[in-house]
């Protein structure tokens, strides 16, 4: 594949500078490469000192690693963003309505818009949540919508993250680092700020507290310091000014979930949990979990604690459900989806499976419940042996897979040793939901595949990040 | 504050203090080795005893050499009190209590860990030892400095101080106890050159030479040294100073929280029982016995604080 097929967000397709990058390019022309190199090193040093690291599972020797940070910003115009944020808001509303429906009357199944077995036989569906109404009626308090771009006006939703989306600390630290290193860029460009995210998050969580909590106590629940995203958990707790707790700090006291403080047990109203459903409550879910709080689900069902996000939200971001999202949006909002889905073949359907097996070399195949770029096949990059192996897997458990065309992901320049070079990117905007409304931080996390030609942007697979600017038009 | 956080703060600062004390002991040992003509192997055993790491060393080594003793105290991963182990533990605890620390303290701690780890990545040869010791002392001092300069004086600070001073009190008691025989006023050894070296070792090991000279001039007698290190109110590493600080910080916590715990009574007793005598009556009671009593009381106090402030479930 030649480079020219891809849409570059700075240079378009034909090599003409795109408008949002105008001022940045004039600045860049005045910079010399040696200074930029020094700045790139300086940025890495800042990240190392601040301890902005993530842990890689299964690697004893490199227990903490830096996510590569690239100093060239990714720039989005205000007009482009407006359309995106309308689409995001619509989608997030639909997701919440869908979750309420799925755990109550299941109108969408009765209406025949999605098949019953897509829910009933889905591991992400949590029977314990049937009939439960979360405080404030909100299911997904924090959502990350993964977007990719293939052209000037062409965006697709690649994936919804409705469980515990991560990465927002990088969005914030990337901006801090850029402000520190290139203050002049922020005088020349009117970049919409992102810094209020922690305050917004706290306000949004507090607004979802169970009835009767005047000044709700919020806490962040982490699996602990060995978790890959521990830095982010600590960062968010610190920025919000709330406690960072682990399962063994908590227990149920007098019908409330309470944390063990130096002055005894203190009740919690809102728990922003960064552990999976399975590990939340050993009495109700995985009995072997040492991370959870025995009995928290009973407190939750009694409406005496808010768990953010609600248990069971995984049913909305499951990759098999993803393919129904356009229907879901239309069903609950009465409007056509503003943001498009990537065309998706559900391998559980015989016709789709046959097509996928015939065209495997052109497709991307993902595990329905997988995440983090693990266990996926990228057809065009796969060897003959990979393809043969994957065909066998597909035939053995077709319901476990979906397939999508290989998208021509847009590129944005990164700074390499030899100057700028285009690399593929995606975008994860962060959305806060509460009864007070939906709040979308302008921009989000841009992940970039550092390796030339690579389409995998996941940090666990060597991807990096960039600061993402939304301009004030 | 979470009980777990209090625990993490306590151990973060206790480990830091231990790292610093251990590096000072290594420095002292090396100094003795360089300034004495006869073999100083026996001295290294006593240095390791003061650091409480001699048994572990002897269990893993056939013989005592200067190189392996230094390596054991600075770098050994299987020695939980080596500088590398304690700095790693301090940083691990800092990660655990990240939300209780200021940005400056966290960054100083992280930098301390990164620099010391790099310094101690390989065996430290004789030529590099001064620079390595310097690196350890400077970076631990930076964490202490940012703590003093940027942290609120609240419960967080109090737990940090209690960890620091419990370790310090423990450390000085051990140093004195290993060397107590040279401090005993015995007719035979007074004024002999061996004792002068031993006394100097003790003062050096707690950075007290300058302070001692200021107070007593160059005329050192063992009784003066013992009095200075045990009872002096001005010396920041004396037993009295450390124990009084522990009591004070516990008192602040008590009035902050409005709750009086058994550990408060224990700390009061510790000060009253051990700090109300003059040096002569301490010698009369028996210096070794006195120090053993204090070590036991400190351990009991540490345990009681864990219970009173719910460090564990």
Automatic annotation (TrEMBL), chain A:
Gene3D superfamilies: 3.30.1490.270, 3.40.50.11290. It comes from the Bacteria. Residues 73-449 form the Circularly permuted ATP-grasp type domain. This is Putative circularly permuted ATP-grasp superfamily protein. It comes from Rhodovulum euryhalinum.
Automatic annotation (TrEMBL), chain B:
Signal peptide: none annotated. Residues 1-309 form the DUF403 domain. InterPro entries: ATP-dep_Glu-Cys_Ligase-2, DUF403. It comes from the Bacteria. Pfam families: Alpha-E. Coiled coil: none annotated. PANTHER family: BLR5612 PROTEIN, SLL1039 PROTEIN. This is Putative alpha-E superfamily protein.
């Amino acid at each position: 594949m030649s480079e020219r097929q891809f849409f570059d967000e700075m240079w378009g397709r034909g090599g003409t500078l795109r408008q949002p990058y105008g001022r940045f390019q004039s600045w860049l022309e005045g910079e010399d490469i040696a200074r930029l190199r020094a700045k790139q090193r300086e940025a890495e040093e800042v990240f190392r000192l601040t301890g902005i690291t993530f842990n890689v599972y299964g690697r004893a020797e490199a227990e903490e690693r830096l996510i590569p940070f690239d100093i060239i910003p990714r720039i989005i115009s205000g007009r482009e963003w407006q359309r995106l944020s309308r689409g995001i808001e619509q989608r997030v509303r639909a997701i919440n309505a869908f979750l309420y429906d799925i755990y109550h009357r299941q109108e969408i199944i009765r209406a025949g818009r999605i098949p019953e077995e897509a829910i009933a036989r889905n591991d992400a569906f949590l029977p314990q949540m049937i009939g439960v109404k979360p405080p404030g009626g909100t299911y997904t308090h924090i959502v990350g919508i993964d977007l990719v771009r293939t052209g000037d006006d062409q965006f697709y939703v690649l994936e919804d993250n409705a469980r515990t989306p991560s990465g927002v600390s990088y969005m914030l630290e990337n901006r801090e680092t850029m402000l520190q290193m290139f203050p002049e860029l922020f005088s020349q460009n009117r970049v919409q700020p992102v810094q209020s995210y922690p305050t917004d998050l706290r306000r949004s969580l507090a607004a979802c507290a169970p009835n009767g909590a005047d000044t709700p106590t919020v806490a962040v629940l982490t699996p602990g310091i060995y978790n890959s995203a521990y830095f982010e958990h600590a960062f968010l707790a610190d920025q919000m000014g709330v406690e960072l707790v682990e399962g063994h700090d908590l227990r149920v006291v007098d019908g409330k979930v309470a944390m063990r403080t130096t002055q005894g047990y203190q009740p919690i109203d809102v728990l922003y949990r960064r552990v999976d459903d399975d590990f939340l409550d050993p009495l109700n879910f995985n009995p072997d979990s040492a991370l959870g709080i025995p009995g928290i689900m009973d407190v939750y069902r009694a409406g005496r604690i808010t768990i953010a996000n609600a248990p069971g939200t995984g049913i909305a971001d499951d990759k098999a459900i993803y393919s129904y999202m356009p229907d879901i949006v239309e069903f609950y909002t009465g409007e056509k989806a503003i943001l498009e889905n990537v065309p998706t073949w559900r391998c559980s359907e015989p016709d789709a499976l046959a097509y996928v097996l015939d065209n495997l070399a052109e497709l991307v195949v993902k595990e329905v419940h997988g995440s983090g770029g693990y266990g996926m096949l990228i057809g065009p990059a796969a060897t003959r042996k990979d393809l043969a192996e994957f065909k066998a897997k597909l035939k053995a458990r077709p319901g476990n897979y979906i397939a999508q065309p290989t998208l021509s992901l847009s590129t944005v320049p990164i700074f390499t040793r030899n100057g700028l070079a285009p690399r593929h990117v995606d975008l994860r905007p962060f959305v806060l939901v509460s009864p007070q409304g939906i709040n979308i931080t302008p921009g989000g996390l841009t992940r970039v595949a550092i390796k030339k030609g690579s389409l995998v942007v996941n940090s666990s697979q060597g991807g990096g990040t960039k600061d993402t600017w939304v301009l004030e038009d | 504050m979470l009980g777990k956080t209090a625990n993490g703060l306590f151990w973060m600062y206790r480990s830091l203090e231990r790292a610093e004390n251990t590096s000072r002991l290594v420095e002292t040992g090396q100094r003795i080795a360089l300034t004495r003509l006869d073999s100083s192997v026996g001295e290294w055993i006593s240095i390791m005893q003061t650091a409480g790491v001699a048994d572990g060393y002897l269990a893993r080594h056939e013989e005592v050499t200067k190189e392996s003793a230094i390596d054991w105290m600075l770098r050994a991963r299987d020695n939980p009190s080596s500088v590398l182990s304690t700095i790693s533990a301090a940083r691990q605890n800092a990660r655990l209590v990240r939300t209780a620390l200021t940005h400056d303290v966290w960054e100083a701690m992280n930098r301390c860990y990164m620099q010391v780890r790099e310094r101690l990545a390989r065996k430290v040869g004789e030529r590099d030892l001064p620079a390595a010791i310097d690196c350890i002392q400077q970076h631990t001092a930076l964490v202490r400095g940012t703590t003093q300069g940027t942290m609120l004086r609240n419960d967080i600070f109090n737990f940090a101080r209690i960890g620091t001073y419990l370790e310090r009190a423990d450390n000085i008691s051990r140093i004195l106890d290993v060397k107590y025989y040279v401090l005993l006023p015995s007719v035979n050894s007074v004024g002999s050159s061996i004792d002068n070296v031993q006394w100097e070792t003790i003062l050096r090991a707690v950075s007290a030479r300058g302070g001692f000279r200021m107070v007593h001039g160059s005329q050192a007698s063992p009784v003066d040294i013992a009095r200075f290190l045990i009872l002096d109110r001005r010396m920041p590493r004396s037993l009295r100073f450390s124990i009084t600080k522990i009591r004070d910080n516990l008192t602040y916590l008590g009035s902050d929280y409005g709750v009086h715990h058994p550990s408060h009574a224990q700390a009061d007793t510790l000060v009253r029982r051990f700090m109300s005598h003059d040096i002569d009556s301490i010698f009369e009671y028996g210096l070794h016995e006195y120090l053993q009593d204090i070590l036991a009381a400190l351990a009991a106090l540490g345990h009681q604080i864990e219970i009173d402030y719910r460090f564990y479930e």
